[in-house]
Every structure is written in C-alpha cells, then in structure tokens.
Prior knowledge:
Helix content is 44%, strand content 18%. It is of the alpha/beta class. It is globular. The model has no long low-confidence stretch (mean pLDDT 96).
Amino acid sequence: MKAIILFGHGARDSRWREPFDRLVGLWREQHSSTPVELAFLEMMQPSLEEAVAALVAQNINEIIVVPVFFGQGGHLRNDFPTLLESCQKQYTGVKLSATPAVGEDLAVLQAIVDFGARAL
Length: 120
C-alpha cells in the first residue's frame, strides 16, 4: 500500500503550518484511499521519522515524500537526503522515494502566475 508525506521546512509561528493542514485536508478529500501525513524539517512536529513511523504502523510499504518547498535549496540538497536515508535504514521493508520540490513543477509555477493574474 502506498502513502504520501508532505514535507515542509517548519517555523516557530504555529500559524505557518495552517496552509499545510489545509493541503492535507484537500488531499484526504480528493484521494481518500491514499494515506497522507505531514512532516517538518525543524521547529515543528512531526519529524520525517515520526511521519514514516506513523505510516509504517498502518502497514504502508511504499512512501513518496513530496517536499513542499519552492526550490531545491541547501536543506533539500544536504539535510533531506540524510534524513531520508536514515529512515530507509530504519525501515528496510519500506520503499521510500522523493519527488523534486513542488516549486520546480511547471503546473505549480503556472498556478502562481494564475493567482497573480486573478489579483489584477
């Protein structure tokens, strides 16, 4: 069974996560048969390891991590691969993979352009 983790940076201000919670709600409404968890790099919970553990407890054997970052900066190039590798070593029976940062996808960039155009 497959699942998805939406992975964000995290912030000190708890309100920062509100769009992520809405994103999870939208996912659950539109893809209810595929479990989803949030995870954060720092300052917020759950961590990537905690989110993976929660999904493994649901008998998930394939997890795709979607970095909800605008670009492939230092955190995604340096910190994230280490975290993902650590999770993979801990859960050898689970296939873990990751997509590029969402901000690198043309559809996401177009959605931002469309948002700006609606503001005119």
